[in-house]
Amino acid sequence: MVLRSLTRWGSIFWLLLAANALRAANKEIVLIAGSPSHGVREHEFRAGCLLLGDCLNQMPGVHATIASNGWPQDPSILEKADAIFVYCDGGDAHPAIKPDRMKLLDGLAAKGVGIGMAHYAVEVPHGVPGLAMLRWTGGFYETYWSVNPTWKASFTQLPQHPVTRGVKPFAIEDEWYYHMLFTPYMQGVTPILTAIPTPNTVGGDDAHGGNPWARAAAAKGDPQHVMWVQDRANNGRGFGFTGGHYHENWGNDDFRKLVLNAILWIAHADIPENGAASSVTPEALKANLDPK
Prior knowledge:
alpha/beta
């Protein structure tokens, strides 16, 4: 009787230990969704993050938390993160560029926490914020150098990289920012999505529409990198993705898989051979839209 009781309690002990080990193995990912912005089904940061978070939470060993409407009210959730994904308005309104927040992200990045930026979040002011973005992700949108036209980009060739697993060549219209500013000599940076924009994607000289350097590059047909990843010197990782203006594009399997793979990659999570598996229904795309 005593032996059976000990055996039973021993089994319970090992089950609890295994459950705790599984919980400890979870990769914690925080997705920061910006405040409402732009028109209906554009810049749907919260709906997009909730959709991606649902996909991530269906994957074994991954737990995603969404912070809606800007910087988390409780920043301590970032301390437990293996990766932080930011999808929000950028420029002067970027929620991560306040000095105390940059200091926090620098500290987390130094510990190896992954940082990913999507769409407008890749744009920060020149100077201290721009240098921070280079440290975190390897590239950023610099005003009067980069441009943000809407165009249909064709991605006919994809590099061999964990982030491209299971992704097939595709073409999709989005506000693909290009002519980005990268680390010197692209140190640590690997382009993931590259396309050739037509010259008419560059407008007149202003902070976003055009500049002589971007016009010259488009006229020559220079390939432009619109998604990239960075291997940091401390084994940390980052990425930038300039698409994501139109909410509907999250319904494209290859578009969505690339970003999910990238989030897993910066978290040092395992990426399946065929990439992150997920499905999104039309109903899911309609869920959680901002009232606009």
